[in-house]
Specification:
By secondary structure, the protein is of the alpha+beta class. The protein contains 28 helices and ten strands. The protein folds into four domains: 158 residues, Neurolysin, domain 3 (Orthogonal Bundle), CATH 1.10.1370.40; 57 residues, no CATH class; 121 residues, no CATH class; 177 residues, Neurolysin, domain 3, CATH 1.10.1370.
C-alpha cells in the first residue's frame, strides 16, 4: 500500500516548508507577465511544501467560515467558500497538469503521495458538519435572497456538492466514504501510471526495409533510428502503420500490443485495479443512496439517468451496426478480390478501408497531408475565430514555458486580453496519450475586474521530421479544431466565480462546445484560407476538396460502432449493483456479446486502457457524452447553415453571448434553447453520419 501523508504537517515537514518558503515560487508573489506560472523556477521539491501550505491556509479560512458568529449569508458562507484555497488551486493546477503533460519518475512518486492527501482534504471540507449547517441555512432561505442568476447557481451547486459529497450521511457512513474516496484516488492514479508505462514500453523494431512496404515516406522517416525503424503505440506512429503497412503480420503485432495494454498479467496489469475501482464506486453509490454508480454520476448531467443514456445508444446502435456490417462485407470482398484467402480481422480494417477509399474516391490521406502543415492549421483556426468572433491571437514570448516544444499566444478582443493559450503538440515519454484542453487558471472576477484564464491545449500530433515540417492527418486536424473549441469556451468566459466559469458545465454538454468547431475544419470556405501546400504554397485544389467532401460519410459505420461500443462498455461497468469484485474480462466479453459487436471491430477503448473512465473522475458513466453532445453540435451548426454563411457573425455572436460566455451559470438546456430557440433535433446528426433510423 502506498505511503500516506497526514493532513496535519509534521514537524519535519514544517521545517522543510519554512526553510524553503523564501525560495519557493508558489509561496512568493508571481512576478511573471500575466500571472503565468513560473515554470522556469518550479522544481519538484517545491510541490510538497506548497501543497501543505495551501491546505493549511484553506483550513484556516474554512475554520473562520464555520466558526463565524454571524448569521450565515451568501457572502460570508457560499462566496467565502468559493474564494477559499487560492494558493492550493494554483499549486494543484500546475502539478496535476504537468503530471499529465510532462511527468517524470519524481513527479509520479509525488503524485502517489499527494493524491490521497488531496482526497482527504476534500472530504474534510465536504464532510464538515459546521460548514454544511451554514450552507444549509443559506440554501433554506434561497427564495428570500436577492441574488443574481449566477449567485443562485453557485448557491445551488454548493449545496448539491456538499450533499453529493456525503455531508448528510451519519458518522459511520462518512468514515466509510472517506476510506472509499482515498482508495479510489490512489487506484485511479495507478491505473494511469500503468497505462503510460505499458504504452511507452512497447516498440516494434523493424530491421529490414522490405517490411516497410506500403508505409508513407514521412512515417518511415519518423521511425528511422540508427539503421533500423522503431514504431511505438503513440498515435502518430500506430495509426499510419495500421492504415498503410502491407505486412499483415506486423499490423497484427501492433494492434495486439495496443489492444492488450495493461492486460498482460505483469506488474502493470490493470484488471485488479479496475475490479477494485468498480467495487468501490458501487459502495460509494450505495452509501449515497443510489442503486448504481451510473445513477449517482448521471444525476448531475443532462441525461440524468442510465435509462436515458441506454435509450440514446439503442437508438443509434442498430443503424450504425447495419452500416458497419456492410462496410465489413465490402472490405472482405476487396480481400477476396485480391485473392487474400483470409477473413477480415481488426488489424486489417484500417488498411483495407484505406485501399477501398482510394478506389471509390481516388482519395489518399497522404495526398492531403502536405496541405495540413501544423502551423497552417493553427493559423486557419485563428482565422476562423477572427471571422466568427473578431478575436485575434498574437504570440507571447515573455512567459516561462514548461517544455521547449510549447508555445504561447494571447487571445485579444478589441485589443483587450481575453486569456493566455499554451499549445503543446508532440508526443514524448512523459506525456499521456490523447488530446485535451485544461486550465492553469480559471477565468473569474476579483475586486470587480475580470481575471483572464490561462488555458492549455495538449495533443500528440505527428512531429516534424528531418525533411518535412509537422504535417497533420485529417484526424489530427479535426482533433485540433475540437480541442480549440474547449479552449474558446474557457477563453471567452465572462463569469464571476471560477467553479462555474468556462468549461465547468455538465459533462454531457461540455463536448458540444468543442465538437461544434469540427464542423468548420473541412468546409471548403475555410480550406481555401488555410490549407496550402507546405512546399509550393498552392491552395488545396478544388478537385481534392470535392473528394474530401464526397468521402465525408465514408467509414461512419466503423467510427460510430467503435465509439458506441466503448460507451456501452462504460455504462455496463457502472450499472453493476454488486460490490463483489467483477471479473473484468468476462464483463467486457458479455457486454460486447450482448450488443452484437462484430468481431472485426474492437471498441474504441478496451477496459484495461479506458483512461477516460478509470484514470479520472471526469467521464465515468459519461463516455456517451461525446455522442450526446454531437446531437447538440450538429443541431447548433444548422443555425449557421440556414443563413448560407458559415462565418455568419450575427449567429456566432449570439452563440458566444448565450453559451460560450456563460459557463455553468444556468442550466445547460436553458442556455442552448436561448441560442437555438428550440430543443435540439437528432436529424442533423443522422444526416451528417449518413445513418437512418430503422436501417
Amino acid at each position: 500500500m502506498l505511503r500516506k501523508l497526514t493532513i496535519a504537517m509534521t514537524v519535519a515537514t514544517l521545517a522543510t516548508a519554512c526553510s524553503t518558503a523564501e525560495h519557493n515560487p508558489f509561496l512568493e508573489e508571481t512576478q511573471t507577465p500575466y500571472g503565468a506560472p513560473p515554470f522556469d523556477k518550479i522544481k519538484p521539491q517545491h510541490y510538497l511544501p506548497a501543497f501543505e501550505e495551501g491546505m493549511r491556509r484553506q483550513r484556516t479560512e474554512l475554520d473562520s467560515i464555520a466558526g463565524s458568529a454571524e448569521q450565515p449569508s451568501f457572502a460570508n458562507t457560499i462566496e467565502a467558500l468559493e474564494l477559499s484555497g487560492k494558493l492550493l488551486k494554483r499549486v494543484q493546477a500546475v502539478f496535476f497538469n504537468l503530471v499529465e503533460a510532462e511527468t517524470s519518475a519524481e513527479l509520479d512518486k509525488l503524485a502517489e503521495q499527494i493524491t490521497p492527501v488531496m482526497a482527504q482534504h476534500q472530504d474534510n471540507i465536504l464532510l464538515n458538519d459546521r460548514l454544511f449547517d451554514r450552507v444549509k441555512a443559506v440554501y433554506a432561505q434561497r427564495s428570500a435572497l436577492t441574488l443574481s442568476t449566477e449567485q443562485q447557481r453557485l448557491l445551488a451547486n454548493t449545496y448539491k456538492k456538499f450533499v453529493r459529497g456525503g455531508a448528510s450521511l451519519d458518522p459511520a457512513a462518512k468514515d466509510k466514504l472517506r476510506r472509499v474516496n482515498e482508495q479510489l484516488s490512489t487506484l485511479m492514479l495507478k491505473f494511469g501510471q500503468n497505462l503510460l508505462s505499458e504504452t511507452n514500453a512497447f516498440k516494434l523494431v523493424v530491421e529490414s526495409k522490405d517490411e516497410l512496404a506500403g508505409l508513407p515516406a514521412s512515417t518511415v522517416e519518423a521511425a528511422a533510428d540508427s539503421g533500423r525503424w522503431v514504431f511505438t503505440l503513440k498515435n502518430p506512429s500506430l495509426m499510419p502503420f495500421l492504415q498503410y503497412a502491407d505486412s499483415r503480420e506486423l499490423r497484427r503485432q501492433m494492434l495486439t500490443a495496443y489492444a492488450s495494454r495493461s492486460n498482460n498479467g505483469n506488474d502493470k496489469d490493470n484488471n485488479a485495479i479496475i475490479a477494485d475501482i468498480v467495487s468501490l464506486r458501487v459502495q460509494k453509490a450505495n452509501l449515497m443512496g443510489y442503486a448504481t454508480y451510473a445513477d449517482y454520476a448521471l444525476e448531475d448531467c443532462m441525461a440524468k439517468t442510465p435509462l436515458a443514456v441506454y435509450n440514446m445508444l439503442d437508438q443509434l446502435w442498430q443503424p450504425a451496426l447495419g452500416k458497419a456490417k456492410q462496410e465489413a462485407h465490402d472490405l472482405q470482398a476487396l480481400i477476396d478480390a485480391g485473392k487474400g484467402g483470409f477473413a477480415l480481422q481488426p488489424s486489417d480494417w484500417r488498411y483495407y478501408a484505406e485501399l477501398l477509399r482510394r478506389q471509390r474516391y481516388a482519395l489518399d490521406e497522404e495526398e492531403l497531408r502536405p496541405y495540413f502543415k501544423l502551423e497552417s492549421v493553427r493559423n486557419g483556426i485563428f482565422t476562423l475565430v477572427e471571422k466568427l468572433y473578431g478575436v485575434t491571437f498574437n504570440p507571447i514570448t515573455d512567459v516561462p514555458l514548461y517544455h521547449k516544444d510549447v508555445t504561447c499566444f494571447g487571445a485579444y478582443d478589441n485589443g483587450e486580453l481575453l486569456g493566455l493559450l499554451y499549445l503543446d503538440f508532440f508526443p514524448r515519454s512523459g506525456k499521456r496519450g490523447g488530446a485535451w484542453m485544461t486550465n492553469f487558471r480559471e477565468q473569474h472576477t476579483h475586486d470587480g475586474l475580470r481575471v483572464a484564464p490561462i488555458v492549455s491545449v495538449v495533443c500528440n500530433f505527428s512531429p516534424p521530421t528531418a525533411s518535412a515540417p509537422a504535417l497533420l492527418t485529417t484526424d489530427e486536424v479535426e482533433t485540433f479544431f475540437h480541442e480549440f473549441g474547449h479552449a474558446l469556451h474557457s477563453l471567452f468566459s465572462q463569469c464571476q466565480y471560477q467553479s462555474i466559469a468556462g468549461t465547468n458545465v455538465d459533462r454531457d454538454f461540455v463536448e458540444m462546445l468543442s465538437q461544434i468547431m469540427e464542423n468548420w475544419a473541412f468546409r471548403p470556405e475555410l480550406l481555401q484560407l488555410y490549407a496550402k501546400h507546405y512546399q509550393t504554397g498552392e491552395v488545396i485544389p478544388a478537385a481534392l476538396v470535392s473528394k474530401l467532401v464526397e468521402a465525408a460519410q465514408y467509414g461512419q459505420g466503423f467510427k460510430t460502432v467503435e465509439y458506441i461500443a466503448a460507451s456501452w462498455l462504460d455504462m455496463d461497468f457502472h450499472t453493476i449493483k454488486d460490490t463483489a469484485r467483477v471479473d473484468v474480462q468476462q464483463r467486457e466479453r458479455s457486454s460486447m456479446t450482448n450488443i452484437g459487436l462484430i468481431p472485426e471491430i474492437l471498441p474504441r477503448y478496451r477496459t484495461t486502457y479506458f483512461n477516460h473512465i478509470f484514470s479520472s473522475s471526469s467521464y465515468e458513466a459519461g463516455y456517451y457524452s461525446y455522442l450526446w453532445a454531437e446531437v447538440l453540435d450538429a443541431d447548433a451548426f444548422e443555425q449557421f447553415l440556414k443563413t448560407g454563411d458559415v462565418f455568419n457573425r450575427s449567429v456566432a455572436t449570439t452563440f458566444r453571448k448565450c453559451i460560450l460566455e456563460r459557463g455553468g451559470t444556468e442550466d445547460a438546456m436553458t442556455l442552448y434553447r436561448r441560442f437555438r430557440g428550440s430543443e435540439p433535433s437528432i436529424a442533423p446528426l443522422l444526416k451528417r453520419r449518413g445513418l437512418t433510423i430503422g436501417s
